[in-house]
Every structure is written in C-alpha cells, then in structure tokens.
Amino acid sequence: MPIKGIPIPSVARNGVGAFVKPCYKITIQYCNWGGSSNGVRQLLSNGKLNNLALENREIMFNIVKQKGHPRLTFHYNNDSVKEIECRNNTDGEILKKLKEYSQNSGNKLFKYNHKVLSINDSVRGIWSPMHIPKEHRHKI
Amino acid sequence: MLRSSARFSLTLSALKSDSIAGKNLYAVFRLHNLPYLVTKGDKVILPFKMKNVNVGDKLNLTDVITLGSPHYTYTQKEGISEQLFKLTANVTEVTREPYYEVIKTRPRCRRKKIVPVQPFQTVLTIDTLKLA
C-alpha cells in the first residue's frame, strides 16, 4: 500500500492578507408619521447618513419606509442578521449604533479570558523528556 | 561595536534557519506595556476599544521584545530594532463582551443598584510576521 501524506487544508482567515468587511448591508426601517421615528427622519434629512455612507463604501444602505417603530437590520458575511431597536432615539444615538454594529463580525458575542486566540500548532513544540539528550534527562 | 553586530547577524541567521521560512516564528510584542506572544494568523483579543482605530486599519507593531523559533530566541528588553523584522496586524473587529449585570450594595443601605455592563473588545489579526 502506498504511503499517503496527511493533507492539511488551508483555512481562510479574514484579515490575514486581504480583509473583507463582514457587514455588507444595513437596512434602516422608519415610519413617516410616527413619533418614534423622529431621530431616523432627522438623520436622513440632515445629511449625516450620507456622510456615513460615503465613509463606508463597501456597505449597502437600504432605506425602507414602513409603518411601525424604526429598526436597524445588519447583514453579515456569515449569514447572520442582527436586528436593533432604535425607537425614540436621537439621530446621534442612531449614528452611534450604526457605527458600532457595522464594525462587528456577526459572530456570537463571547468573553475570552486569554490574550491570544490561535489555531496554529504550538510554535514552541510539545515538551517531551525523550527529546532531551540522555545525559541531560531527569533521573528519578 | 563590530563584535555586537557580528553576534546580531549570527542570532538572526540561526532564527531564520530554525523557523522554516518563518513558519515556526513567533514574536512577543508589547501593547500598553503588556506582552502578547503571537504567530502569523493569530487573533489578539483586547479587552478595550482601541482609540483612533477603525475596522480594516492596518497597524504596524514596532515594540517587539522577543523573536523566537522552537530552539532559539532573540530578546531585547528595550525593544528590537525595527529593521530586523516586520510585524503588522489588521483591525478585524470592534465588538463587545456578552451583557451582564452587576448588583452593587452599600453598607447599611437596603437598596440595590443594578449596573449594566457590556465592555468593548478589539480584535487584531496578525497579518505578517517575518524577519527582514
């Protein structure tokens, strides 16, 4: 039987080499009549949203006029969708939310109690007593 | 001076050959004086929101104290010269930790204060790590 090597498939890691922003589409839903959409209406009319869209050209901004409370929907590359309520928020508060959630990756939030997350093999190797010269080995 | 530079090149050549074309290379860099041991492709998860930084920015990490391979290390506590290596990181995510609440109590006071906590998190991905 021929000897086969163990194939190591390459893992696509966003940010190693090229980086693609995970948030690709933002839907802003507002109502033309309701008071809770005041902030969104201000944001649309005072040009602040235009500036944000110009800064983030890789994100598609979709504005939807629909009755009910306003809502922001963020679409991410990993098929996850985040829906954020923004009823009765001022335009500044909504802008803050837009900036914050457009910088997320769409993954579930988690607390990591270490500093570095790595999928590489241990760079300094696994310690083994058998790989030390015989005269330096620990004797019991 | 001559002697030190000769020793310099010797160390790095050993590192170069031992870290198979940079495959087994690691570096320890400092951020706010805290050391982080990284290899290429690692994610550095910082428990704060980095100032004046946006997602997609590339950071050039220059405060490196150690370069190492499985068998050799080169350490300079005051920092290794920038001409000897290249270490860059991409800012890939600015997010938050999961939401939790802290109940604060004061002595001899029967009221409890519930404080919502959701701290920021910045994720850096190590883009390049190589010897010059």
From TrEMBL, chain A:
Q: Which residues form the signal peptide?
A: none
Primary localisation category: mitochondrion
Q: What domain of life does the UniProt record list for this protein's source? A: Eukaryota
Q: What Gene3D superfamilies does the entry give?
A: Glutaredoxin
A GO CC annotation given for this chain: mitochondrial large ribosomal subunit
InterPro entries, A to Z: Ribosomal_mL43 (IPR039927), Ribosomal_mL43/mS25/NADH_DH (IPR007741), Thioredoxin-like_sf (IPR036249)
Q: Which GO terms describe its molecular function?
A: structural constituent of ribosome
- Biological processes, Gene Ontology terms: mitochondrial translation
Answer yes or no on keyword Ribonucleoprotein. Answer: yes
Residue stretches making up the Ribosomal protein/NADH dehydrogenase domain: 32-105
- UniProt keyword list: Mitochondrion, Ribonucleoprotein, Ribosomal protein
Q: Where in the cell is it found?
A: Mitochondrion
**Family to which the UniProt record says this protein belongs:** Belongs to the mitochondrion-specific ribosomal protein mL43 family.
Q: What is this protein called?
A: Large ribosomal subunit protein mL43
Automatic annotation (TrEMBL), chain B:
Q: Name one Pfam family in it.
A: Ribosomal_L21p
Q: Name one GO cellular component term.
A: mitochondrial large ribosomal subunit
Supply one GO molecular-function term. Answer: structural constituent of ribosome
The UniProt entry, under InterPro entries, shows: bL21-like, bL21-like_sf
The membrane-spanning stretches of this chain are: none
Q: Which PANTHER family match?
A: 50S RIBOSOMAL PROTEIN L21, LARGE RIBOSOMAL SUBUNIT PROTEIN BL21M
Q: Which family does it belong to?
A: Belongs to the bacterial ribosomal protein bL21 family.
Q: What name does the UniProt record give this protein?
A: Large ribosomal subunit protein bL21m
Species the sequence originates in: Scheffersomyces spartinae
Its lineage opens with: Eukaryota, Fungi, Dikarya, Ascomycota, Saccharomycotina
